[in-house]
Specification:
Layout: H1 11-67, E1 77-80, E2 83-86, E3 88-89, E4 95-105, E5 111-121, E6 129-136, E7 150-156
Antiparallel strand pairs: 1-2, 3-4, 4-5, 5-6, 6-7
Length: 157
């Protein structure tokens, strides 16, 4: 008896390689989506930290502004969050008095708020005081970190 051999010797190997390639492509796609979701959720968390730091800076600035009747430029330091920080006097166009300070926040200063208080704003904007606070998710002494996220809040009245 003679057996006829068909020419299908490489079909199983080719089918296996094709199947493994499809499964690998699907796995890489799912891994890529998962990585993007992780980065997005981490970014949202860091943005929240920066926003809350900016909010704390606004509260500190409002407290200082409301409790200081004398020219605000005569204040040499600010005490917020149990910490006393130095104040810098700045010159702004169309502003009578302006100061700024950096406020480290968190248990070990891992967040930062940069606050600027401007009194006697005379540019015809309809308010006389503006407080700007820029919060970040990094310490105040690390301004050039590429993972730094900032959020800003402005209060005017």
């Amino acid at each position: 008896m003679k057996f006829l051999r068909k020419k299908e010797d490489g079909f199983v190997a080719l089918f296996t390689v094709l199947l493994v390639s499809v499964i690998l492509a699907m796995a890489l796609g799912i891994a890529s989506l998962s990585l993007k979701e992780i980065v997005l959720s981490s970014s949202a968390s860091e943005g929240s930290k920066a926003f809350y730091a900016a909010d704390s800076g606004i509260e500190c600035g409002l407290y200082l502004e409301r409790s200081t009747v004398i020219p605000i430029t005569s204040v040499s330091s600010v005490t917020c969050n149990g910490l006393s920080v130095p104040v810098s006097i700045i010159n702004e166009a169309n502003v009578g008095q302006a100061i700024e300070f950096e406020l480290p926040l968190g248990a070990s200063g891992e967040l930062c708020a940069r606050v600027k208080i401007m009194r006697e704003v005379t540019s015809g904007l309809g308010y006389s005081t503006a407080i700007d606070s820029k919060g970040s998710n990094m310490p105040c002494d690390d301004p050039d970190n590429p993972k730094r996220v900032e959020r800003s809040i402005r209060v005017t009245y």
